[in-house]
Structure to design on (456 residues):
């Protein structure tokens, strides 16, 4: 269904809708969803059904956005030559990141698997349209970065929606954003926010892969709340 | 329970845990959660139970983060003088935003309610610690903005977790980020990402408030996926 028709159907359904109340069972499952979401780098290569991809993108568009600007733009990367160019850019950036490691961490860094670019059946580059007129600038005069932040919330929404369907998502940030924009030939006002790999994960865990690999565990430091 | 003990308890539970499978009923409820999350500006002023606030912050810390850096830092703003200073900063920024509106939108802009700073019982300023050593810089050499993006994902996680519990959240971005950092006397490496109002919402809707107010409806533009 074209996006405009889908939006009409949504508005129709909405007219009869009532606010949901989430019970304890849902709360517990929602917590499990947060605990078992992972940044995935090991995928099965089997392709995802088209309807599932469409559904995930529809859900991502329900993310909050500053001024209701909906600045997220999705590019589906399927062409083998473009995928290879993204991999080459990752390899350049990662070689330079490896060289910048301290002596004591370099060996561990080299052993980390940091992306699933060769296996992931679905790859989405997510851009923020910095020139969008939607929202009429509301809410982003003093903090223009909220436009990119809105795009990030679409990514996080997509991430959770994918995990609900048993899919893994991995965010690859070891890339040169301008190079990727060039590889994908996007409009000049689009800025790369995230490059995402999606597919069925090879394993499930409620511990971050970087923790399992001994790179960085979660800590409680972020939970010290300042009172003011 | 102190944060470190909570983390231990989590690790203990984890050892016996199995990957969850989310059924169709959960998928539907999760979609309702996304559809009924709103940016809320009209709150009941009754305070939130302490245990609930702690629970929400625990869940927010399950957000993804680049290199597992967990750079989010929460400041709970309760002091009346500091709250008044934040309101004064909002009013300055909003007056200047109003003045910058085009003639035809100025009247509508002036009628919008853009924050619940006077009523919201819980107010959290969320910062990103740009100087954190956690994560050892992994994943943010070429895209250092992913540290702030990680903080945004904690906000989005908190937003959904609050809505699951029937609470509304409103993100106020019409603020001078440096002024707010000064009002709240945070460490110099902390950068303001979001100022959040939380509380029981006065109304529920599956349509954005800016759409109901005639400012900006959702459009299908963001769903045109480029194929590359």
């Amino acid at each position: 269904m074209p996006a405009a028709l889908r939006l009409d159907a949504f508005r129709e359904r909405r007219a009869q809708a009532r606010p949901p109340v989430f019970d304890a069972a849902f709360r517990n499952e929602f917590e499990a969803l947060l605990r078992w979401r992972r940044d995935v780098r090991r995928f099965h290569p089997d392709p995802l059904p088209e309807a599932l991809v469409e559904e995930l993108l529809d859900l991502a568009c329900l993310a909050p956005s500053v001024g209701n600007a909906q600045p997220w733009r999705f590019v589906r990367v399927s062409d083998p030559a473009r995928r290879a160019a993204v991999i080459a850019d990752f390899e350049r950036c990662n070689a330079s990141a490896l060289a910048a490691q301290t002596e004591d961490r370099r060996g561990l860094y080299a052993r980390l698997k940091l992306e699933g670019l060769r296996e992931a059946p679905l790859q989405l580059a997510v851009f923020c349209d910095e020139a969008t007129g939607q929202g009429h600038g509301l809410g982003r005069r003093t903090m223009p970065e909220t436009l990119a932040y809105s795009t990030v919330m679409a990514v996080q929404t997509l991430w959770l929606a994918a995990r609900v369907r048993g899919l893994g998502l991995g965010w690859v940030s070891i890339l040169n954003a301008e190079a990727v924009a060039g590889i994908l030939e996007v409009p000049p006002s689009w800025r790369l926010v995230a490059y995402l790999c999606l597919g069925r994960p090879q394993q499930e865990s409620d511990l971050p892969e970087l923790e399992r690999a001994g790179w960085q565990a979660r800590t409680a430091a972020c939970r010290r709340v300042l009172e003011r």
User: Anything to note?
Assistant: Helices of chain A lie at 3-15, 24-36, 50-60, 80-99, 103-111, 146-164, 177-184, 209-212. Chain A has a mean pLDDT of 94. The CA atoms of residues 119 and 182 of chain A lie 23 Å apart.
